[in-house]
User: Fold this.
Amino acid sequence: MNEPKLLVFDSGLGGLTVLAALHRVLPGASYLYIADDAAFPYGDLADGDLIERCRAIMTKAVPAYRPDAAIIACNTASTLALPVLRSRFHLPFIGTVPAIKPAAEVTESGVVSVLATPGTVKRDYTRDLIQTYAGHIHVRLVGSAKLAGLAEKHIGGGQVDDAAISTEITPAFAEKDGKRTDTIVLGCTHFPLLRDRLETLAPWPVTWVDPAPAIARRVVTVLDGFAGPSIGPGQQPVKSGPKLTFWFTSGRDVDPSILATLTALRIRHLLA
Ligand code: DGL
Assistant:
């Protein structure tokens, strides 16, 4: 399927890091990007409220947009709400979960941190991933309540102090039995938006693992095995309008800071 319609969902703009990776492997795709910014941040939302918001938003968006697949570009939502969404809607849901398996494969020191929201850190799903793929190494779970908000502020052109970022990331740099953390999982889709700042402020160099490219490859695999709406003989695919549409639950419009983010992620042209 070369020109699929994809729904990409996050609490804010972090999911655009996943959308950018999707665009690299599926350049013909069209997107509805939903940001539940009225409820941002998801990181400390109660489990029941988070599931209910995801369910309610998909109930409106899926019949209206009729996507070929939905990408939950949010670790905090994916590690909790995927089973409910998959049972409720008849389309493939691809989630974003902390990249613990790849991190366990690349670490040399055997000391890895997962930097994520407090919600993601406390999930059974995350702990199961560690047990399944990283039982042989030391994994430190670091919940940051503020980093996603700092990322939103940073890409919105706001002033974000180095000290504020350092406070959030320093607990992810640890020593265990004389070995230092050498790999940090970016367990929230907002964090890659701060990638340059993270690299500059890291107390020592580490490998930052961003799952977005792997998620994009997974979407390609899922779409390959999924028969979308077919086009009859003589019919042309309907290709009008922009390839990226936004729905902000707060009612926010696409403003200059969003345009700047799209430009930085090289997906600005999708709005044209
Ligand atoms: N981008 C979301 C994630 O991947 C969370 C940000 C938030 O706390 O809302 O977990």
In short: The longest helix spans residues 47-65. The chain has two domains: 5-96+213-271, 100-210. DSSP finds eleven helices and eleven strands in the chain.
